[in-house]
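Protocol step 4 of 6: structure prediction from sequence.
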Amino acid sequence: MDSNCNLSCYRKKRSHQPSNIEKANTIQLIFFDMDGVITDTISSWKYIHDYFGTSNERSVNDYLEGNIDDLEFIKRDVSLWKENGKLTNIQKIENILSQIKLIKGAKECFTHLHKKRIPTAIVSAGLDILAQRVAKNLGIKYVFANGIKQDRNGNLTGDGILNVQLMYKDKNVRFLAQKLNIPLRNCAAVGNSCFDIPMFETCGIGIAFNPEDQCVREFADIVVEEKDLRQLFTVLKSYV
């Protein structure tokens, strides 16, 4: 489900509107995108495509133009992951994703936040296999990410599990904030692409970390160019 930022297509599909959320004084909950923010890869989906030598460029274009929805996007991606003409198995996908490393400073960042008793969450259109592993390693309690279905033998069926819509991550933000009874103005979001803008506009503060496109810089309250999550210690110091 990899995609490059195309802000005009993004706005067209999302019918993007500015938010009126108040800006934060204190932070009580932080949402993180995963790929390119917590993990050192542009996309967990692309990482698998690169392994199999496949490309989903046509699906990306169809999605951004509004011709297919998120679930169809996932299904098209999964349908390309074959060995000997058959869909691969979940163990293979887990093995591939196990090679993805955490971004610099990730462990220190989350240790610091948890010492401050700030709950953290992953909101990613990436793969839940990777998100759950990352969350376990870093002590992240809440995870929203997309899955792939398998049969009783562990073989991929070609179907997906949609938990996060790429252009509507704000839905997951609102859901968890309401569940935890935390005002949106006291939430922060950390992301790196235009698809994280809805989180920025829903939360009291938006942080563009290791930004991959100009639009995410423009919508962020704070921009961290350095690819090191320890930089959040400084930018969040006055909020936690």
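Step 5 (inspection) to follow. Residues 72 and 194 are 21 Å apart (CA to CA).
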